[in-house]
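Appendix B, example 12.
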Amino acid sequence: MTTVAITGASGNMGRETLRQLCEADRGYAIKILLLDTFKEREFARKAKRRYKNIEVIFGDVTDYESCKKLTEGADYVLHMAAIIPPKSDRDALLTRKVNYGGTVNMVNAVKETAKDGKEAKFVYVSTVALYGHRNYLHPWGRVGDPLLPSVFDVYAASKLKAERYVLESGLHNWGIVRQTGILYDKLLLKNISDGLMFHTGWNVPLEWVTDEDSGRLMKNIVEFDLENKADKFWKRCFDIGGGKGNRQTGFETFNDGFGLIGGSAEKFMEPNWNMSRNFHGVWFADGNELNDIFDYVRQDISGFWEEMRRKHKIYRLATAFPPKFIKKLVFGRLLKDENSPVFWIDKEENAKVKACFGSRQNIEACPSEWKEYPLLSKNEITDVKDDYDNMKDEKRVRQNGYLLDHGYDETKPDGELGIEDMRKAAEFRGGKCLSENMVKGDLYTKLEWACCDGHRFFATPYTVLKAGHWCETCCEPDPVWRYDILAKKIPFFAQVWFDTHALNENTVYEIYPDFSTGCRKLKEATL
């Protein structure tokens, strides 16, 4: 019997993955790693009562012995465990330890527990947050784009480092999937409980996928591979796309969600409450590639909200309250949360204000009335190249010039890429390829590179050209973010960074290494 080991099984994506694997006709032996807490033990008790083929290991991905117990005897390892926002915003130390350190442990455990040289096949769930903030100028992204985790986003920064570790690990069979926003059962309730909800810009592009479709993807990776239908997946990165029916802006997502409780974004919120930049979100120009292999997309966002309306009586009951009452009781209260931009403004947390708005002048210039705030989804932004509905159509992406340049001839088959392509790509990144030779088409033997600041490093051509990584010294943030400086030296970064940042910005953002407060003290230095 095939054995599948899972981390993060109690999360939204993990629960669906566990359910679908346990209910699959083929039958699997499932091993899951859970924290030794009351909540996780309750989850384990219910899961073992429902499914008979589960082995539970109580431990922690930050504990190497726990990781070895999980990977021992496994044929597949699905690594989904992570500290995510808003918790990651409040505990940087734990986030780094789990997201990066836990991934290092899992990769090394897969290597050590290999039998007769046969390693488990390793699937790492990364994140769309690696791409950082996008707006209407470049709403479309794809694997190979610049990786620019937003300032102070320790979650994205830790996932960036973890992803690179997987890429450069030398594992025989790995696959990386960059997850987008997940639609799950309690999404609305969760998002009205923390100031995190105000981080989403009104006009940012968001592509969603449901937890059920995400679980189907993970199950199908295993099933299709056992049927020899997954050859195109291994040793590659992919974006988990949801398709056109799951592409929206931040405004539309709020609007649809609030419709469940008889309101709308305009009734419940004000335009100057939310950040204008420094979030993350993108429509995936290459999302169909993963779906073409594993055929996992079944649901769209409109169907999801309708299902939530039918399923949860509480939403129907909430419609009895006047919108003004809900605005004051729910959202007015959240404005005082320490994760709310309004809180940062009031408390003069200037580094956050600068990162997320550009300046206090920008905040003052932001309209407080919706009739004065231009919305992309309503075709109110004058310099957009296309009608909004057409803008979301992947067939028009190239003709509208939304795709970013990767610095080499992408029309070449991978097997034709050689040392000259490496040199061009490095130059576009402000550096050099120091290696003099490479075997044409060999994307997995490490080469030597140098960045614009003279740091020398080794990385595979796949990591650089195909996955979008660059110098691990200066281009991987946390505790310091210096994109304002780097983008002036790196054309690869500049083509998207200056969509939302001025050329005269020269800010270096740093998180103080104050361990007693979880690194939540911030400072700003201008060069």
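The first helix runs from residue 12 to 22. The chain has a mean pLDDT of 93.
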